[in-house]
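Weekly puzzle thread! Below is a chain. First person to post its structure in token form gets bragging rights.
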Amino acid sequence: MSNIPTLPTRRIADLEVSRIGLGCMPGSWSTERAKHEQGIAAIQAGLDAGITVLDTADIYAPSWN
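Winning reply:
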């Protein structure tokens, strides 16, 4: 038996995913180690809560910065 909570889900193509996602932009804008670790902790907390959608995009960490 899993300890992951059951969240409402929906289908995206052939995947069943949580209806609640986690936006990852705030975790990519800082070069400070503490902020990086906070971002990792936030993602881990989301996964622990049963979130299966992590919203990421190249624009969150653009190469021109």
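Puzzle host: Confirmed. Bonus trivia for everyone else. Strands lie at 9-12, 15-18, 21-23, 53-55.
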